Amino acid sequence: MVTPTGYILCATPRTGSTFLCSLLASTGVLGRPESYFREPDEVTWAASFGLPTVGRRVQDYQSFVQAVRCAATTENGVFGARVMWGTVERIVQGLDAPAHQSDLATLQAVFGPLVFVHLQREDSLRQAVSWARAEQTGYWQEGDVVQRSPEPDVGQLVGLAQSIREHNTAWRTWFADNGIEPLDVTYEGLVGHPHRTLTSIADLLGIVPPLDWRPGTPPRKQADRVNEEWHAPLRSAENREHGEVW
């Protein structure tokens, strides 16, 4: 078996991926994972790499990907990136790979041997609530400024819950289609046992974190009374729609 030299963190919004990325980067030996390929951020990353852009796109996607590889790789040669569902297709299309070539082969031709980490949240309804609230307020993480007060919108909540299910299913299908056995990790496990989660990823890569490394403090819990108030009508709507007990 070829020893992997990098990983892609596959996630959906509000699963703790920002915290996990910060943990991995803080070791100094597990890559520098960021959402380099997120479409709204592409030109910002390109500018930081000194690459030209045209409108909201990079001018030369191949050069952009190579720059990402350099930026996301620690000195020991480990590459790391975070990708949400839908972005993989964008990367593969940008690389203009042969039609017969699998997505995995296309990615590994650029980034080298990869492993994949699938980050999910066990309670997808609370994930939907968190996602809706972030979308409304603009407050995604510490340091962001609240742009407006949140208002309950059951339609939005139900739609996001459905998106989460669809995206997780799409990830699992993509893994199967490409013969990938991802490492499954959860938001709940990450928050409760960050060191254990990080170690499981390091083990996949055959990397031992520095002996003096310690996980940072998990981000302050954002959920409060508002989240609980939104959760109840979402659960009721989901029960009516799916006939399941949540």
From TrEMBL:
Ranges that cross the membrane: none
Basic and acidic residues bias locations: 221-246
GO molecular function, one term: transferase activity
Annotated coiled-coil segments of the chain: none
Region annotation Disordered: where it falls in the sequence: 215-246
Sulphotransferase Stf0 domain segment(s): 7-232
Signal peptide range in chain numbering: none
Protein name: Sulphotransferase Stf0 domain-containing protein
Organism field: metagenome
Taxon lineage: unclassified sequences, metagenomes
